[in-house]
Amino acid sequence: MYLTPQHILLAGASGLTGEHLLDRLLNEPTVTRVLAPSRKPLAEHPRLENPVGDPAVLLPQLSGQVDIAFCCLGTTIKKAGSEEAFRAVDLDMVVAFAKRAREMGARHLIVISAIGADPKSSVFYNRVKGEMEQALKAQDWPQLTIVRPSLLLGERVEPRLAEQLAGPLSRLIPGKYHGIEVCELARAMWRLALEEQDGVRVVESDELRKLGK
Predict the structure, then answer these.
(1) Cα dist. 84→72, 77, 92, 114, 168 in Å?
(2) From CA 77, how far away is CA 115, in angstroms rounded?
(3) Alpha-carbon distance 46 to 63, whole Å?
(4) Per residue in 130-165, pLDDT tens?
(5) Which CATH class is domain 7-211?
(6) Stated pTM of the model
(7) Over 29-96, what HEC string results?
(8) Among 12, 96, 110, 141, who pairs with 18 as Cys (CB 3.0-4.6 Å)?
(9) Contact yes or no for 19/10 (Cβ under 8 A)
(10) Of 146, 145, 201, 212, which is closest to residue 178 (Cα–Cα)?
(11) 51, 37 contact by CB (below 8 A)
């Protein structure tokens, strides 16, 4: 069954994926309102509401009915400055955003995780992503879609050296570890938003690439 979500809540709209997803949402004729809180102002649009400030302060102040929520929040340990600061964004902030979205009436959450997410992983990054997935499942969403892209391919405002070096190689790797263009990921997330099915769905990168073509 396919839906036509009209009121959307988006976190991470100023990031690489969030930026592409926001552009797609604002160009969809069925979308009447996108509520996208951010630390820095976004480009104005008649259907965009953009509260600006500290996410911890903004979340309780958000209002209005929401049909669906997208979470594109994420950082790196290098940018965050420490493992604790990384966890505060990729786990705590994601969970808090999801909780607020549910309070605002959203029945479907689509969240970006990562390949290898596992709460028992020996790799810190994968472990935090796994803990995040686990926490969201515990919120008992009517519909929860977890997307696990591989290396994102696209131009960032602040380039990441590791991604620049790994990008060409990731294009040669088959299956779910093959790099994914960020525009494909945004298209795939929108297509997933239109599908209605109960429970939790985990979508790996190879399926995301097919959906985003």
Answers:
(1) 19, 9, 10, 19, 31
(2) 17
(3) 18
(4) 999 999 999 999 999 999 999 888 554 454 444 444
(5) alpha beta
(6) 0.88
(7) CCCCEEECCECCCCCCCCCEECCECCHHHHHHHCCCCCCEEEECCCCCHHHHCCHHHHHHHHHHHHHH
(8) 12
(9) no
(10) 212
(11) yes
204: enclosing H helix or E strand: strand 199-204
Reference 97, options 142, 64, 58; nearest CA is 58
pLDDT digits (tens, 9 = 90+) for 84-119: 999 999 999 999 999 999 999 999 999 999 999 999
- Is the model more confident about 172 or about 57? 57
CA-nearest of 146, 50, 56, 49 to 96 is 56
Residue with tokens 């709209």: 13
CA distance 49 to 26: 11
Could you give the maximum distance between any two Cα atoms of the chain, in Å?
Answer: 46
Domain boundaries, the chain: 7-211
Cα-Cα-Cα-Cα torsion 152, 157, 162, 168, nearest 10 degrees, comes to: 50
Do 203 and 188 meet the contact criterion of CB atoms below 8 Å apart?
Answer: yes
